[in-house]
Design a protein that fits this description.
Blueprint lengths: L12 H17 L7 H15 L6 E2 L2 E2 L6 H13 L5 H24 L6 H12 L2 H6 L6 H21 L5 H19 L3 H10 L1 H5 L14 H33 L1 H10 L2 H5 L10 H9 L7 H7 L2 H5 L4 H6 L1 H19 L12 H21 L3 H5 L4 H25 L19 H13 L5 H31 L2 H12 L4 E4 L17 E3 L2 H10 L4 E4 L13 E5 L2 E6 L9
Parallel strand pairs: 3-4, 3-5
Antiparallel strand pairs: 1-2, 5-7, 6-7
Helix pairs in contact: 1-4, 1-5, 1-23, 2-3, 3-4, 4-5, 4-7, 5-19, 5-23, 7-8, 7-9, 8-11, 9-18, 11-12, 15-19, 18-19, 21-22, 21-23, 22-23
Length: 577
């Protein structure tokens, strides 16, 4: 079998650790904290640290109930070791992302422990990492890499419990599952149960076809199944105990309104009728192929998945269902996908914990397809050419971006409007490198082995991501970097000047400026102007939609998220709208 052949030096952890380092370095070093999510979460961590309020998160001096505290605690751990700084908070999600790659490898090896199937585990992590959406999102200071890690930790524990067969190792595995549920809840709330409970409850459907080493064949009788489901119940209880060890004291300190928010409104309420991100039930079905780029444009992968002919021949996806490991992955992915599709609130990153399962399934199908092709002596015809479409896709994507950037700049000379003011800062020439790399791989990429092709396409995808960061870096800093205005606010705060803004405040400036004073908020410009009259030394922030002659009178003015940010005082008042 091809999958049992010796692997190349970079066909394994060396490859994906190198790719991880390059992608994360680009994500962290080449862009600022992005408002409003990243700046909001780092501000919550800052206010908890500043006020020594480690039980109850706060935002702008008010209780913050939208997210549990584990991410903030991880940030605090970095600050406790290295002092308060801008860099260590940005390492939390990437380090959990790296741990997710190792967990992906571990789960693949648990599903297929034979050395003949080692290739599945080696190619799955780089496929996870260099999926465009995962690569960009895994460098964001958000919660999803944490909840993904605890999902994978729980999945690995389930497989360990099944391997134990009710004997030695059973209870340690289920205790680990319970801890994964508990810390997953501290990372992002009860949603961790959606990621873990369905696959645990469906054990009779995957367990009877899941095989490990031949010598492990424990008896699966009625007593075993009673113990299995009792163990799941105990694991859930452990998870609740871990989560409640924070939630109960936090509810006591935060008060009844905070208790109602963390126990109901931010979890069950979101599932039943979301107050944000409401989308139709089929939304994920349309979006998922885009989120899995560039792998979803690889014909070799779709040949491995197969169509109706493959299903009738019992190969491709049907072979995955007949295989124990493949069935486990399908029963992990599909119920979670359906559950999230039925929940009202939807965001693309909600499904990130299932991306490793999808890529492990893809890796399994690719390796089995390669083995069939070799057995049928059709390697050249079936495999050799298929690296070209994804390579050409990346080259074409780079070319389209270059044309769009410089074409828009050309149109801007005619003052047609609708051109973002920061577009002239995009350095589109960086995209020539992935364009050339994609063209070169499409022309010269002759490797037939799936490991070599995954390594080549992963490296090319990494090139696209890194050089896209390089191209966008000046524009991102111009339109999203709030450090300069935050430092000005700090100077005004030190001088005793109050500040406020028009519109809802999301914590954009508190951490970046290390501010101690809450930001005032006004619903209308008239209210804010009246406040300026009552506070002659006050400072007011507004967010105008366009740049006008009045903008030159502002104390400070910059691009901001497709709009503008302007600062005014009593001597330089904002123009009436």
């Amino acid at each position: 079998m091809i999958s049992s052949s010796p692997h190349r030096p970079l066909d394994g952890p060396k490859l994906w650790i190198l790719l991880w380092f390059l992608v994360m370095t680009a994500g962290i070093m080449l862009r600022p904290y992005l408002p409003i999510d990243e700046t909001r979460y780092i501000t919550v961590a800052w206010e908890m640290w500043r006020d020594h309020s480690f039980l109850v998160p706060h935002l702008n001096g008010e209780l913050y109930s939208q997210k549990p505290p584990l991410l903030f605690w991880m940030i605090h751990l970095g600050w406790a070791i290295f002092g308060v700084n801008d860099v260590t908070p940005r390492l939390v999600a990437p380090l959990f992302g790296l741990a997710n790659l190792f967990m992906t490898y571990r789960i693949a090896r648990q599903l297929w422990p034979s050395d003949a199937d080692a290739l599945i585990a080696r190619i799955a992590p780089p496929m996870v990492l260099t999926g465009f959406y995962w690569a960009v999102f895994s460098s964001m200071t958000m919660f999803d890499m944490l909840v993904t890690f605890f999902t994978l930790m729980g999945i690995s524990a389930l497989l360990g419990a099944w391997r134990a067969g009710g004997g030695r190792g059973h209870w340690p595995a289920f205790i680990t599952l319970g801890l994964a549920m508990g810390f997953g809840a501290l990372a992002k709330g009860p949603v961790i149960l959606l990621h873990l409970l369905p696959i645990a409850l469906l054990a009779p459907y995957w367990g009877r076809v899941l095989s490990f080493a031949p010598e492990i064949a424990p008896r699966r009788d009625k007593a075993f199944w009673k113990k299995w489901y009792l163990s799941i119940l105990i694991a859930v209880a452990i998870g609740f105990a871990v989560a409640l060890s924070w939630a109960i004291p936090a509810a006591v300190v935060g008060g009844p309104a905070y208790a109602d928010a963390i126990f109901w409104r931010q979890s069950a309420g979101r599932m039943v009728k979301s107050f944000a991100h409401r989308r139709p039930y089929y939304w994920y079905l349309l979006l998922l192929p885009v989120l899995l780029l560039p792998w979803t444009v690889w014909p070799r992968l779709w040949a491995a998945v197969g169509g109706w002919t493959s299903w009738r021949a019992k190969v491709g996806l049907r072979a995955a269902w007949r295989d124990g490991g493949g069935r486990f992955l399908l029963l992990w992915i599909v119920p979670v996908f359906i559950a999230f599709s039925l929940i009202s609130g939807k965001q693309p990153h909600y499904l990130l914990p299932e991306f490793p399962a999808i890529m492990v399934l893809f890796a399994f199908l690719l390796v089995r397809h390669q083995d069939r092709a070799q057995a049928q002596e059709q390697t050249k015809k079936a495999i050799d050419w298929t690296i070209r479409p994804p390579a050409l896709f990346i080259a074409a994507l780079s070319a389209i971006l270059i044309i769009a950037i410089y074409g828009a700049l050309l149109l801007a000379r005619f003052d047609l409007g609708g051109i973002p003011p920061w577009l002239h800062l995009v350095e589109g020439y960086w995209l020539v490198f992935p364009l050339a790399g994609g063209a070169l791989l499409a022309w010269r990429g002759r490797g037939r082995r799936v490991g070599a092709q995954v390594a080549a396409l992963s490296s090319l995808a990494m090139t696209q991501i890194v050089f896209l960061h390089l191209a966008l870096a000046p524009a991102l800093h111009a339109a999203y970097d709030l450090k300069p205005i935050s430092l000005k606010l700090k100077a005004w705060e030190d001088a005793g000047r109050p500040f406020a803004q028009v519109g809802n405040y999301h914590g954009q400036y508190q951490f970046l400026g290390r501010l101690k004073t809450p930001m005032g908020e006004f619903r209308t410009l008239d209210e804010a102007t009246q406040w300026l009259g009552e506070h002659p030394n006050g400072v007011l922030i507004t967010y105008p939609n366009e740049k006008t002659a009045d903008s030159a009178r502002a104390l400070y003015f910059q691009d901001y998220r497709g709009q503008y940010l302007a600062v005014w005082d009593s001597a330089h008042r904002p123009p009436a709208q």
